[in-house]
Predict the structure.
Amino acid sequence: MTGDSRALAELLEESQDLQADALRPTRDALDELVETGHARRDDDPEVSRAFHEEHTRALTTSLSGAALLGAAGGAVLVGALASAASASSPSDIQILQTAASIENLAVATYKTALTLPYIGGSSANPVVTKFAQVTMGQHAQHADAFNAAAKSLGGKAQTKPDPAFVPVVNKAVAGLGSASATQGALGVVGLAMELENIAAETYVKDTVLAKKASNKALFASVMGIEAQHVSVLLAVQALLKAGAPQLISLSPGTAASLPAAAGSLGFPNAFYKTNSAAPAAQGAVK
Amino acid sequence: MSEDTEHTFEGSGSELRAMTMELDELHHDMGMPAMNGALSQMRGTSRRTFLMGAGAAVTGGAVLAVVGSGTLPALAGASTRRLSAADAAFPPPGLKGDLAVAAVAASLENLAVFAYSSGLSAATAGKLGAVPPAVATFATAAKGQHQQHADAWNAVLKSHGKSAVTVTNPALTPTVRADFAKVTDIAGLAELAVMLETIAAQTYQAETAKLQSKAAIGLSSSIQPVEMQHIAILYYVLGKYPGAQTMSGTPLAFNPTSQAV
């Protein structure tokens, strides 16, 4: 392993220090929300009905299309969530709360992963460890931003993880206990990748579903970050499966050692899909 | 192109190639239908609906002119008949609102295709020194995706009775063309690619809140994360943190839009 963990540690510290700067665009968006949110509540019955139909359809599509996490729940869950998300509820609030619930779950997942010796311990690849730490911090910032936006519209902050995905994550984490270091690392990477992809796909879809421009901008500022997480995890997964963990490194010369096929593993689709997106109201505060 | 022999990857190369083939199949199985779905939706969108944002979206030339100010890293010279003249009216007269955005987007994608094509040509000619095989694969794949993005935006334009945009972005092209001649190695090419990908990603991101048609928003949002993924891999190639970051390399949780055109 040739990762420059010291440099990454410094980056992490800087990242935390500069959190306020990084959030500036979001704050601007939130300022706009505060100004316009209460004046433009989505209480138009026609708008609410249309949203209800849309999110019910999206919910059905999502739960039938996702591989692992998206399959959580099934038909019963579809009906329960569809009815729980009232047609008269402010849709942007629900969308934001669901986004926060996904971020909360991501934070919890990375936090747990970092307690594992092959992710956060002395036997872990330092690049993987720092990636998990930085990414966990970014998800916490995303959750804060989504909750701030929801609260500015009169909604409650969502402090809980997405209920549909929690059992699946718990089961996956429990299965890591008896795994070897390599299998465990692959399991964590696979789980994280699926969560990140659901987040990215959800926010891509949310840029269309959200009504307020400031919310669209917020989702747009996050969706690409999650997609980058997916890219990194795809590359890490491929190198682990190929038995080449030493190439999980940020040393400048690493690229020269990568096999040709590694160059395109991180971006498999020319257009980001949305069929695994979480239903818009799945994580809304009930 | 030379092939690095210091750290061979014999046993696992075939596995990675197999994964790449699977991903390529997935791309055509799922990515393309997703894009086609968006296009179908757009085609189904009435002309009036798609043009709703006539007064809200970018107005082309004036906005684009802000960008081509010479901060791009160097590239190597190449000629292409698709290169745009800096003084050409752009977007073409008659394109407003979301369709103007589509034209700008197509021109940015054309520029990316040009840059990667030129880079690959220079590499093949031995002008960039040793070229890691993974970098060549990256450039080829990224170029292909940018071509698909350009095709998607042009399909939108054509479905509304407009001509496809086949030129590179007029405001950025002179700078890119001039700087391209200065690139001497893969790192320089990667740095330029980061800049172009960043401009594209941030432009799509900024337009998300401005576009009026849901179909246009959906298409734009389906492309932005892909450009961001290109950036992540480019940073990895350069030995930098593989994600959005400040100029000093500090990771960012929220992607900015300061470089959007």
Summary: The radius of gyration of chain B is 18 Å. The longest helix of chain B spans residues 10-44. Chain B is about 60% helix and 0% strand. Chain B touches chain A through 83 residues (CB under 8 Å).
